[in-house]
């Protein structure tokens, strides 16, 4: 279990992490979600004792990281996969890590097998692809067979197969009863990987809930309506107090917010208007996420608002 209590980190005038409180439970994958600059990496670094909190604390299995007697056996982390010595082989790298932590050599072969690197273990890690480097980083994190695992943006830059593999791997680690915290700035990715979400923006907690709940809550439902008399339909819905906009697709259609297909069908029938299509739909996850964290994004793309004339 990871417990974050009132955690705060200031860099000069910037509050990178601002009074964060949440817990991460074992047995499930917890997604740590937030836009660029939200404070995900800084929070993870504090959990791992790499950064000192300005105030508050982070506990791993009940104690601060620095007080763990055997840190590698308690917490494994993948923060930056490219820190291995480029001229060392994957096996030599892991053996060196194992030796300095009193871990037997047999465990090195075990973790190499777990991440599927046995065949290339004798090759120099400097020549590894990003996907292979990530696997090596995972192998290193797993050396001490830790109960708690932290992964900072582990799928960044990976191809779909690599992403799929990492996703499955994290889920299997959680299924073994481990505590798994994985950060990302993509809600769509997290919705496929995690069961719970801790969402932050500008260092502050935005949501701490299940993925299903967050997705439900954040993606606005609307009803898509198509018929031969769109103008008539539009005025009928507007007369009923509903908000109507044009669908962006090629075929002319309307999107009605805050209603149901039942209610829309009845309004149309009441006016004797023919319907060719009536379907409920949800907005895209990323759209919803951007809306929720919108005010919390630190770096808005410069000038984009001007170019789009406020359409964003
Ligand atoms: N060592 C540092 N010195 C000064 N400011 C820092 C330092 N580390 C992080 N920050 C600032 O703290 C804030 C949070 O950064 P952090 O890297 O934790 O965000 P993040 O959520 O991991 O973002 P990303 O998605 O880009 O990785 C940012 O404003 C960043 O510029
Ligand atoms: Mg980061």
From TrEMBL:
It holds the Pfam family ABC_tran. The keyword Chaperone does not apply. SMART domains: AAA. Keywords: ATP-binding, Nucleotide-binding, Transport. The keyword Repressor does not apply. One of its GO terms (molecular function) is ATP binding. Residues 2-227 form the ABC transporter domain. Belongs to the ABC transporter superfamily. This is Multidrug ABC transporter membrane-binding protein. It comes from Rhodococcus rhodnii LMG 5362. The lineage of its organism: Bacteria, Bacillati, Actinomycetota, Actinomycetes, Mycobacteriales.
């Amino acid at each position: 279990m990871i417990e974050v209590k009132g955690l705060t980190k200031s860099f000069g005038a910037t509050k990178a992490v601002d009074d964060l409180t949440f817990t991460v439970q074992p047995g499930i994958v917890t997604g740590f979600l937030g836009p660029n600059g939200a404070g995900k990496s800084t929070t993870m670094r504090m959990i791992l004792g790499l950064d000192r909190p300005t105030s508050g604390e982070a506990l791993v299995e009940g104690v601060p990281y620095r007080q763990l007697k055997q840190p590698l056996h308690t917490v494994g982390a993948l923060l930056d996969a490219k820190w291995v010595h480029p001229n060392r082989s994957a096996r030599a790298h892991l053996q060196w890590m194992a030796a300095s932590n009193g871990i037997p050599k047999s465990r090195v072969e075990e973790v190499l097998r777990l991440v599927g690197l046995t065949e290339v273990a004798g090759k120099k890690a400097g020549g590894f692809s990003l996907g292979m480097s990530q696997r090596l980083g995972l192998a290193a994190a797993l050396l001490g067979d830790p109960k708690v695992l932290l992964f900072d943006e582990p799928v960044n830059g990976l191809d779909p197969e690599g992403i799929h593999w990492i996703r499955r791997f994290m889920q299997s680690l959680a299924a073994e009863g481990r505590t798994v915290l994985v950060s990302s700035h993509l809600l769509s990715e997290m919705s496929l990987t995690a069961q719970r979400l801790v969402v932050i923006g500008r260092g502050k907690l935005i949501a701490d809930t299940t993925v299903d709940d967050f997705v439900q809550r954040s993606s606005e439902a609307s009803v898509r309506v198509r018929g031969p008399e769109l103008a008539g339909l539009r005025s009928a819905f507007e007369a009923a107090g509903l908000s109507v906009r044009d669908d962006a697709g090629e075929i002319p259609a309307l999107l009605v917010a805050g209603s149901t297909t039942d209610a829309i069908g009845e309004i149309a029938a009441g006016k004797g208007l023919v319907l060719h299509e009536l379907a409920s739909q949800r907005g895209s996850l990323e759209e919803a996420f951007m809306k929720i964290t919108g005010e919390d994004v630190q770096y808005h793309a410069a000038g984009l608002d001007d170019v789009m004339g406020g359409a964003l």
